[in-house]
Amino acid sequence: MEWTRSETIGLASVKCVHCRGLGLREARGRLVPCACVFRSIFRACYARFRKCVEQEKRYSRVSLEYSPRGGRRITWGMKNEEYIADFYLVSKRHLTPEEWEVFRYHFLLGADSRLCTRRLKMDRGQFFHMVYRIEAKLGKVFRELQPYSLYPLDEYFYGRTENPWKSMDADEAEQKKPLRAGGGVRVPVKKVA
Description:
- By secondary structure, this protein is mainly α.
- The chain has one domain.
- The protein is 50% helix and 8% strand.
- Strands 1-2 form a two-stranded antiparallel ribbon. A two-stranded antiparallel ribbon has the order 3-4.
- It starts with a helix and ends in a 17-residue tail after the last helix.
């Protein structure tokens, strides 16, 4: 996946010492996203997960979508419940057993750092380093998941939208292009007699 500065600069932490708030840092001669961008993606996805979980079930709605296979097929789904399941299953699939325990206690069950460190028998520094690693790891997975990523959230919930407008540069290029090989315009002429 190709990352651009315009994608990462809005997600980057202003106080990040690695990317200096730009979102991209150089590694092995190429630009890669900083971990602060991945943590930001995870936090946005986690906030939406919490919102979906805390929402009353009677407010859950069914959404109708056209099938990606084409034709006139329409499928229905409950997006909030699907997002909860996707968030949980993707997290479980990509974390190690030790990371999963921290994720389960801290993020899913809502335990604070003191309770987690006591329960998991780890010191405070190890706990927070693991939390940051989990956030960065899952943030990257949520963005780069194929074929349907969990982030950006608006694409997940409302479908991918394409911009039908062309840029003005493209219009100017089309106007400068000759209509035919001779360079002139061919006008149809009626034959008389």
